[in-house]
Specification:
With 339 residues, the protein is mainly beta.
């Protein structure tokens, strides 16, 4: 079996979980519903949680069973679409990500003009990285690590990111809202419309098992409310993503999509269908992709030969040595069969 990193990680303490047959794991007492699964286990789960009287949509991507990719938008980061390889541009790469099977899509962070942090895709720096900012890093295997940029040990020495996205300071650390998140100085968490601090907001975090959690609400909330909701969903570390009514967008499918299709799990009241990511969107976003059914196989990208040199990152199958010499189509069929 191929040696693969099966769990994304940050330096976090243990958090108890339980698993029952036919049910998704439970974190922090929140009941998660299985959205998509395979013989590898749960791929995507979702929940509607209430925090401070506000309802939030939450989805969770299972570490080791799901890959994550980051894309630039057509307008933001400015000029990036003409610099990054096609697999990281402003639409789902159906020839690569669609081959594996798209499970979920969701919005990215603030505009670069907001000076909320840096970003990098396929070796192209689209905005300078900022020490001290909350960061998600993605490697060639689609695994994620989250932490504070510039902190020793993050990302780990062997991780080798191919994509990085930052957005402001941490929202959640050690499983609780940060003092900055609870501060009355709400202006440090983005510029709301008409100077009304309570706005629709989104956030991203990682739990003690390395699973990735995205939450969103179209109800106006303050940063502290967002942080409490993310922590209540089980996040040990988290960052704010985009805000204001126009930008929160989420879609999750009940099975991997190999071409544009239905994504019934969405944010109630969102102004956009997740189908905007199918053909092209103006802002950055994330794409979650399914690992092959056969755990002996895995999807991977080539990786970077230099952290500052552009290199396309299309997905390809990694398979057991016994599959060597087989046609790609045959290999794909074998990898998608239950062993």
């Amino acid at each position: 079996m191929i040696r693969r990193l099966l769990a994304a990680s940050v330096l976090i303490g243990a958090l108890g979980t339980s698993m029952t047959a036919g049910a998704a794991p439970v974190a922090s007492g929140l009941a998660w519903n299985i959205v998509a699964h395979s013989t590898r286990g749960v791929l995507v789960s979702d929940a509607m949680l209430t925090s401070g009287g506000v309802r939030f949509r939450a989805i969770r991507l299972t570490s080791g069973n799901v890959l994550l990719r980051w894309h630039v938008g057509s307008q933001d980061p400015p000029g990036a679409i003409g610099k990054v390889p096609v697999d990281a541009r402003n639409a789902i790469d159906w020839s690569s990500e669609g081959l594996a099977g798209v499970l979920a899509v969701f919005n990215g962070g603030f505009k670069i003009a907001a000076h909320a942090g840096g970003s990098m895709a396929d070796g192209v720096t689209t905005a300078p990285l900022v020490k001290g900012d909350a960061t998600i890093a993605l490697n060639a295997q689609g695994r994620w690590q989250m932490g504070v940029w510039g902190t020793p040990g993050f990302p780990s020495a062997s991780f080798r990111p191919i994509a990085i996205r930052q957005n402001l300071m941490p929202l959640v650390e050690a499983g609780v809202p940060t003092p900055a998140a609870l501060s009355p100085s709400w202006s440090q968490w983005g510029s709301p419309l008409n100077y009304r601090p309570a706005e629709p907001r989104t956030a991203l975090g990682v739990d003690a098992q390395g699973n990735l959690i995205y939450i969103a609400t179209m109800t106006g909330v303050l940063p502290g409310q967002l942080a409490r909701a993310l922590a209540s969903a089980g996040a040990r570390f988290g960052m704010e993503l985009d805000m204001n009514p126009y930008w929160p967008i989420l879609g999750a499918s009940t099975s991997p999509l190999h071409s544009p299709g239905e994504m019934p799990v969405q944010i109630p009241g969102s102004e956009h269908s997740p189908s905007v990511f199918f053909s092209g969107w103006e802002r950055d976003f994330f794409v979650a992709v399914a690992e092959p059914v056969n755990p002996s196989c895995g999807w991977s990208a080539p990786g970077l030969t230099s952290p500052t040199a552009a290199r396309p990152q299309p997905l390809h199958l990694e398979a057991p040595a016994s599959f060597a010499g087989l046609a790609k189509g045959v290999m794909l069929q074998l990898c998608q069969l239950t062993p």
